[in-house]
Batch of 3 targets.
Target 1
Amino acid sequence: MIQDLQLYNTLTRKKEVFEPLNAPHVGMYVCGPTVYSDVHLGNCRTFISFDLIFRYLKYSGYKVRYVRNITDAGHLEGDRDEGDDKFAKRAKLEQLEPMEIVQKYTLGFHEVLRMFNTLPPSIEPTATGHIIEQIEMIKKIIANGYGYEIDGTIYFDVEKYSKEYNYTILTNRKLEDLLENTRELSGQDDKRGRLDFALWIKAKPETLMQWQSPWGMGFPGWHIECSAMSAKYLGNEFDIHGGGMDLAATHHTNEIAQSEACSSHQPAKYWMHTNMLTVNGTRMSKSAGNGFLPGELFTGDHPLLRKGYSPMTVKFFMLQAHYRSTLDFSNDALDASEKGFRRLMNAVALLPKLVASADGDVFIDPIREKCLNAMNDDFNSPVAIAELFEAARMINTIYDGTTKITAEELEKLKTLINDFVFEIFGLKDEESSNLELNEILEMVIDLRKQAKENKDYATSDSIRLGLQNIGIQLKDSKEGTTWSKV
């Protein structure tokens, strides 16, 4: 069942046929969260996108090893190896041990992704659990001539590396431009070049998280962890490396440099980046005051939100945009996704009630083929979702009796919905999971049915209008009465 997938390759700026290095096995590494604060929506979009990719690769017949790291050490406030360690700063602020901070926010991260119904990765390594691997990689980089020590801190020599490799291959920027946009070294800076970055940082006596190394007590730089852990679990060469687009210019660029300096191989064949989030056309950020956490989005407890939106509504909203496109949050856009998701789930709920006919005028194979073609085209989820709405329209017309479907095509329709809605997109029907609400409404529908049978139309209409006033729409048909939220 292996599919010919067309992936967008960041390095070549074009689509290429996916050729896993060890077909049918796929190695995928995604940069995980830095767990010193609550997970933000940009993280959620990235992990929902790669959950989709993980699910579809598995559905397509690949055996996937999906590695997603947890950054719990070495992430300083600045990309130039300056400022405080973010974990230590948060620990001091909350008067906790650094690993208490790590545990608290890791659990919060997992809970948010559970609400979005994402699959866990195959392996979820931590930076603190792989200090030895990072030290060993740094030793190899030094031995190969690309690292140097200054008073217990190890720097990567970008200038020397750039003479033999293309340092800006991922962003296609000119090295001269990077140098012009980087401040001149002051007399207090130890590193040789302006673009050099720290592989290992000498710890101050008061540093909370530090480890013994050949260069003294210290802690790893931010970038080295991903190079060391991806190599350990996926090898020096693997298939897909992913993350948010904000990681490309610095973190992923330095990952490539480290890996090539260590093993002479670029680590990944395909680099995949999710695009940024905006709010009403403006980039989402804490400093702009327009950023909100998943919990605020679910409850509506934010001045920019008119109301709260369920996790599946938010996930559906994200899947309606391609992972490489900008995603703009607005109340109107979320409202539209909420209505669309409800319409799709209402149709799905009708599937068990459909009755097959001896003949039919509905055929499912063309829709399935279009869904597969969309997903094979760089995981184009919005196009596939558009086809699912066509399937939803078919379900409604079959239920209404305006079209017919054979038993064979009905089974194909059920399989299509199960494969794409639940298995590939990872959606779930939040309404049907609310058993208490279902039971209450079924009881109310029975009371209305009895009123109609007794020709008590006033009571019947009163029940229907009363439910409509609280957002519950009843729909009568020859098969019975169904309900949906409006």
Target 2
Amino acid sequence: MGDALGMPVEGMPHNEIEQVYGSIKNMMDGWLPKGSYTDDTQLMIGLAESLIECRGFSGAHMSRQFISNFEPHRGYGPGTIRVLNNVKEGQGWHEAASHLYGGGSYGNGAAMRIAPVGILYYDQPEKLKQVAEVTSRITHAHPLGVEGAVLQATAVGLAANVDLIESGTLNKIDFIEQLIAVSTLDEYQTKLDMIKSFITGPKNHTNNDIISALGVGVQAHKSVPMAIYCFLEKCGSYRDAVCYAVNMGGDTDTIGAMTGALAGALHGVRGIPEEWLEDLENSQKGRDHIMKLGEDLYDLHIN
């Protein structure tokens, strides 16, 4: 949902979005038709399909599923295209990404698709971390790319663990401190500490201050922290969280997708605006297929 909402303004700075649109609140036509998803969601679909079919992780199967689903018009990054082509030509799935850019990509391509791992293993943190790491390495082998996916999957799992009916709210401080405990790299620890200060300190920072501190770029460490912040800042509403993320500018489809995954894990499908559901692409692997994948992940978890 966040992917499709952010797609039309991908690459636009926050100030330009504000000048041109005021605020993005609903689906619009963009470089794809209104309500269309991008490579972010297509890769997420392949990841979920593979987990369900294999009843867990299989690198060989998951990489083949990515290749089978591949539609170039969705806007894939050049690194992911190279990796998938290498696997298609016979290179092992576990090594194809490690040669990219002299040590692997640290883009956000692994984090943007990782939500099904967080959902499936939300109550098994060690298993969640392990599967998040290996799924990432299919296309993004750099430590920054891997840790971004681990943090996003962990955050999805934490959000899914919260019972809003029972608790009434999300404990933001506990949430961010659990992510800080998982982080091992300075690039993420520094930004997670900034998020903690933003949500606990005085509200005298502007959106531009937040963008400058956390980033809105295609690199994992310049987008995963922003998604986590947007979710925590607007965690009371699925709609508010996703709109807030998309209007920050930059890699809007991916930051929207990651924020939406977090808000969706917390609020469930009940929190999604009905008009957004109606506008979402419903092709062969569109809205209904994705909803069924969610049901199948739940069945796999309980069985």
Target 3
Amino acid sequence: MQNTPNKWNRLLNDRRRKKDATSVAGEVQNSNKNESRTEIERDYDRILFSTPVRRLADKTQVFPLDKNDSVRTRLTHSHEVSNLARSIGTALIYDRQIQTGHVSAARDVPAILATVGLLHDLGNPPFGHQGEAAIQSWFVENSDSVLGCLETEQQRQDFLKFEGNAQAFRLVTRLQLINDDFGLDLTYASLAAMMKYPTASDQTDSSHVAKKKHGFFASEEHVVKQVHSETGLSLGQRHPLTYVMEACDDIAYVVLDAEDAVKKGLASFSDLLAYLEMKSADDPVVKKLIEDSKAKHKEYRNISGRLSPSELNDVSMQRFRVYAIGQMVKSSVDAFMTHNEQLVSGTLEKPLLAVSDCENLRKQLKDFSVTHAYNHRSVLEIELTGFNVIRELMDIFWMAIIDREKQFQLDSKRQHPFTRYVYSRISENYRRIFENPTPNDRKFGIRYRECLLLTDMISGMTDSYALNLHADLLSRKGSFDCKNFARGS
């Protein structure tokens, strides 16, 4: 077995697929001698300036299409996860002095964590997890007609269990940038660390943290194998920094969603403390958090005449957020150091927070948001609208994808004027990838690639774009029966 520093050198592999491929082809690329960033720092910038990141501003975090601009979107959530992850990376290097033996670890560990924190939700469809559920349900309902002729169980499960994580991997390795087959061409280290579930869709296991869901489609499995070969990992084995990214996602998810529930007036700061006291008064971490938050609330309340009741509620909740995040970040760092060997070897089967002293706090905060936010009528109403919109859009786009005059000529003219219009609304780069398959694409049948084109298009939409496009297409379709057309495919 390799010693830890040697393993870290592979885990922080800063080479890129495109450069390796062109080197093999005899076209070695010259490095930019004027570049002051490390390769992994460049990954962060490639993600930051990419179009999918900007789209996150109009994608649901918890509250779809919310008009309160202080409530979080997927973009603000992703920036918060990225910042928390970078902070933990800095703490691991400088405070705990974790030994990696990697020459630029002090810069690369925080940078890779910031990168994967920023991109972890890039593949999410509109309307949050309801978007995933809508896509899955459409394929389940159309399983016989749409998926019946697929060649393997993995290909079928790719869509029956559609995953935003797998779509994110496809997005950065294939769909972004259209002049080659390398996408954003991130380093091997970043690609490995972004894979929360390095597992195929037909190999999932709900009892294992890295196998609960799938993290790539069959179409990108060859990329995953290359990434794992270069980083010393294997299927079902996480990169150690992936556990940190997941912990930061969970911290932002439970703490900040609770804060948003309070901002929207669905609950109050006092409701939150009362809930935690009722559920976990004996937990030392929760007890300390409640005591500190109450003390600060009392201090704010004593500022006579300066704070209105709503301001007192908001500022007390903000202080709670600071205390809760601080404790959970510290616990994550402690847990990483305690379980360092398991993390580096990829054998830890639980999330990082689950082996920390903040796991109970995480659970109770999540339960609070489920009770006061996720199941609130206002949220459920808009989620239902989004669910129905996505399913109807899938009927319409599926019709346009398969309605070709020449079935085996993918760029063939669509037979009906409406399907021609709909097909033209699919993003040009997605159509180009579909119509011009690579040698790897040709390993898969046309039906599988048609399904990928459908999910590529739906996943790339923002909430508002999906609603507006849905209204536009319905106004144009006339009597054309999209639903039965899809069922008869």
